[in-house]
Amino acid sequence: MELVEYILYIGYALLVIGTLGTVIGPKVDNPLIRMLNVEVPTIGVCFIFLAYDETLALMTFIAVNAVLSLILVRAVILNAEYEENE
């Protein structure tokens, strides 16, 4: 097999394992840990895009995911602060 096929299969494996880990994995009650668990399938999707040589899709996905991660972390922090004040 070529390197591209290995990258594709690793991407599929990360996507499936990461999704299962997010749904039934450890500490799924903690929103920050759950968000970090979502990053594993994200890397899998990036590998799949990379294997299909979808450069524009890969760059767009990485850029949107970086911004979305920052927004979600801030939302989790604000939610925790809001719950402490009540």
Count of helix runs: 3
Roughly how much helix do the residues carry, as a percent range? over 70%
Tally the beta strands. 0
Helix and strand composition category? mainly alpha
Q: List the domain count as a whole number.
A: 1
Shape: elongated
Beta percentage is: under 5%
Through-space gap between termini: 58 Å
Tell me about the biggest sheet? none
Low-confidence stretches: none
Mean pLDDT, nearest integer?
Answer: 82
SSE pattern: HHH
Radius of gyration: 16 Å
Per-chain topology:
Layout (H helix, E strand, L loop, with lengths): L2 H22 L6 H21 L3 H31 L1
Helix pairs in contact: 1-2, 2-3
Which features characterize this protein?
86 residues; mainly alpha; elongated; 0% strand; 86% helix
Description:
The model has no long low-confidence stretch (mean pLDDT 82). It contains three helices and no strands. The N and C termini lie far apart (58 Å). The chain has one domain. With 86 residues, the chain is mainly α.
